[in-house]
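Researcher: Here's the sequence for the chain we discussed earlier.
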Amino acid sequence: MTTGCPKPGLAAIVCGTVLLGACAQPTSGPPSRGGREPELRVAVVAGATAVRVGGEGTVVVAGSESFTLEPGNPIRVVADGGRVRIEDRSGSPVDRLTVRGQEASSFVTINGQPYRGTVLVYSGSGGVVAVNVVGLEAYLRGVVATELGNRPRSELAAMEAQAIVSRTYALKNLGRFESEGYDIRASVSDQAYRGVSRESEVGNAAVARTSGMVVTHRGNLASVFYHSTCGYSTASPEEAFRTVRPVDYLRPVSDRRASGGYYCDPSPRFRWTVEWDGRELQDILRRTMPTILGVDEAVVDRIHDVYGHGVGPSRRITELRVAVGSGTIPVFGPDIRRVLETPEGTMLGSTAIEVTATRSGDVVELLRVSGAGYGHGVGMCQWGAIGRARAGHDAETIVTTYFPGTKIERWY
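Model: Thanks. This is the structure I predict for it:
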């Protein structure tokens, strides 16, 4: 997800593995309407060999014993036989370390970045886990500007829309990783969260002005998604995901302005082109197809053709076909962006694409893909939200346009 502009995030950014996780049902489930603001357990680090924990201001570290850390004097925590241990410090490994600010103005740092609330450090699957336990509203302050960029006051409505959608996502996913000891992750596999360092005045105002407000459908929390740039229309779930149930409010929505053009056309990723020469294409497909599709790399011997085969409700390609020596390999919507990796090693921008193969004899010599938008395309278009805010739309209008048939309600 670039600095200063919406990320292809989730909840924003990525279709295959990232967002499929967002569809899993939480163990404990979201809180009911009318309760108090919940705390959220956000995995900032998961599966690392080590993590540095310290403070901006004095912090207290509690394990088998308690001690204080002064600013600029972090500790390094490593896994040790299913427990955690502080390097270069005497004492036995412990099940968990708890780190909190000594004063309200003291922030806990994880790998140098400050966070509100408390930090728990323990050994999890794959290594050290650092979890930020923080109130939901404080969490959103570290999400909104990270996801949408540092927007001007004139685009406050877009920030408010992001806050409402991000709050809904967080509440809907409380308890999803209960077995791992946290609720959601701080990366684009859920929502990009960078703590205090990415907060902004306008983002914080958006969170405060929408406090407790969520997207609902028939009285329940909606399943919400968002992405950087739709290009012309949002997508239906079946075009992007394998496991998201079709629902009335997740359907293609045009982003066309009545005056012409599209609300998201200011996006730097509104239109783009990628090219591969024949050798690059073969090398990439021989690497991605075995990992993503389970196809033996030896099958990807000669690339005779690459073409789209079928489009979905939003006109995105739902099946890409790659003709090789022994036949044709189908690549379906959720996998296209990862299989057709760019020469720079990044995921393809979207599946709203036109594919043109230039052949020399019976082998592809050059593949050219012209694309629209960036991200999976489902739900709220972040650059579209910015364009609508510039056009004078309020947050409720923005959200209910991208999720037709929903309401904005105060949950707590």
